[in-house]
Amino acid sequence: MPPTVARSPLRPRAGFLPGEIDSFVGRRKELEEVRRLFTRSPLVTIVGPGGVGKTRLALRTAASVSRSFRDGVWLCELGQVHDPALVTQAVADALGVAESSTELTPFSLAQLMSDAQLLVVLDNCEHLLEASALAAHDLLRAAPALRILATSREPLGVPGETTLRLSPLGVPDNPDETTATSVTRYESVQLFIDRATTATTDFELTDENSRDVARICSQVDGVPLAIELAAARVRTLAPDQLVDRLADLFAVLTNGSRIAPSRHKTLRQCIDWSFDQCSEKEQLLWSRLSVFVGSFDLEAAEGICAGGTVEREEVLDLVESLVDKSIVTREMRRSRPSFKLLESIRAYGAEQLLASAETTSIRSRHASWYHQSIRTFEADLLSQEQAVMAARIDADLSNIREALDFSLQPAGESAEALRSVNGLYLYWLSRGLMTEARYWLGRALGQEQVGTPKERIVGLYTAMTCAGLQGNLEAARRSANAALSLVPVLEGAERDAYAATIPGVLAIFEGDPEGALAHFPAAIDGHHRSGDLSREVELLVAQGFTLAMAGDQGGTDASHQRVLEITQPRGEIWWRATSLWALGLSAWRHGDPEGARRDLEESLRLRRSMADSMGSVWALAALALAHADLGDLEGSAVLLGVVTSLTRAAGAPPSIFPELEDALLACEARIARMLSATAADRARQRGSSMDVAEATAFALSEPAPAQASAPSAWSILTRRERQVASLVADGLSNREIAASLVISERTAEGHVENVLMKLACTSRTQIAAWVADHVESSGSNT
């Protein structure tokens, strides 16, 4: 005889949800998305790491759609259930039903629910995954009108399940450049302010403390639990003091609410809960992955973290499992997946790694991996892979910095670090990272006996070049003298090359073109004979610029043409773009604006492929001159607006050549004379509103790059529901809507109920207000 289940009189039929005791901040888009997902699937699981706000979002969603469920919305909290066999009983208890036989199964409970129209919130399923999945599956199979909203740190894996991966709240991109006004648009900051003012009524966001509040939110990765724990500390710590103490997240982020679940009372307990749900191999990989700073790819994880009980071929499945468990986050970068650990999860893993005594060996493997990636970059320095490898360095830069730091410590490989900094020479130049290059070189070269004499010479030459480009002649001369003192140790062509290269390049920075030109032929010849083609190309470019400074335009063009002869067949990009820029300027000087435009546009395309923003600005500046001479004064004014805006933002000149700056000023004056003030201002303003990508597209007469636009707020509704919502806003009754759309009154009523549910409205008046807001902002309701 099957068990019979009777409804308990202790619970009201309308359902049961706990009331909110503090405010719900942000998550409007996610709230709408969960409601939208329910139109596609009867089971929606909100998935995310611990403390990210899954339960709060689920409860707010459930409350907002309660009108749509005849038998109410019900919360089943599984956090305190530890035996999988008790999940069905927990669901029954939450629904207010009591069994009258000795056995209760998911199937028997599902039979009771067969005609139910209700929403069940299954909260905190990850530690009872199989039992939760079975209960959800049987309930949905037996009750077509039932809906389940689950929260878990990994998906349930039930057929028909739709998941929403909940990310942390948005944080300021650059905390050091925020104000009290600008920072409040970030939901993480809004939450901090709300909880801080609850903790102490005298807290107030000001321009003085806004940067520290932004830093706090960034340091905890926008995780709501961590933000709430941090905000509670403002009772005793000012925001700047809190920033200093967040170096130890787990010591500071304690003392949560006394009534919160134990796993949410401190940040450590929250992550302990996740760690306990992992297998031994997952725990081991988690600890090893903590060696990564920022993002990493699967190949790096396999190369660095395999070993011992974790085989290389197991890493893929283990990473996927950690992604499912919301330990590792996955994102797409340049059409390839990359992975990342939130800072709190990384810090926890680092503690586990330290406890396992593997820290030094894993960090050593990590450093070796990224040093090797730099060797690959060096090998492709003059090839068509240059842009791809530079982008790879961009993605790996945080890990490269970590590798350099480890290698330059007493137990590290300082010589390997010096080789890597030298190997990134072109990268430092193309990205404008002169200060950083000098920092690492200072640490490496400051250690005696590090590197071979040639490696030290190359490092000192790099330091000289970076200092010279920054206008620090004293530092450039010190590095040059130190390098020249080592040159006699070299032999043959290498000795000849560097003996001429170092004083020649230094002479450019000292404003002595004749002195530079006296050294360059020997420098170029020496690098050619020694087989250092990359340095030969660099010196040909330098010679070309120096000849231009000396007024020898024929020699300038010959040097840059030689660069193109070497680089073009190989597919090299950066030096080729530089020489095309110089040739474009040369054509402009010779009264050939069309030839100038052609070379400068090609230079700009190459700069774009290298993601070289500053080089692109230089090309845009020169193109402004060519456009003016071609009679396109408005286009020239737009480009000048771009250049002025972008160089001001970067704190850089439009060119390192005074001659070009003078030409741009003359071009501005010409535009002012020949265009009306209104037209000139309009063009400049148009340019000043563009970023590098938009300005490049404009200069190349290409369509503007597609902007990632947010989906229309109306997209949450079907076309018919949008029509119904508009008619409700016009004041029509269900009968009038039915007549207007030629549908039955019952169908109209169903559409209105769907609109109420999706928009989280409780009345027709609220629908009307929502429609008014969104028609005004979008200009359309169809």
Automatic annotation (TrEMBL):
Gene Ontology BP terms: regulation of DNA-templated transcription
The protein's name in its UniProt record: LuxR family transcriptional regulator
Organism domain of life: Bacteria
Classification via Gene3D superfamilies: P-loop containing nucleotide triphosphate hydrolases, Tetratricopeptide repeat domain, Winged helix-like DNA-binding domain superfamily/Winged helix DNA-binding domain
Family annotation (Pfam families): GerE, HTH_77
Domain HTH luxR-type: 710-775
GO molecular function: ADP binding; DNA binding
PANTHER family given in the database record: HTH-TYPE TRANSCRIPTIONAL REGULATOR RV0890C-RELATED, REGULATOR-RELATED
SUPFAM superfamilies tied to this protein: C-terminal effector domain of the bipartite response regulators (SSF46894), P-loop containing nucleoside triphosphate hydrolases (SSF52540), TPR-like (SSF48452)
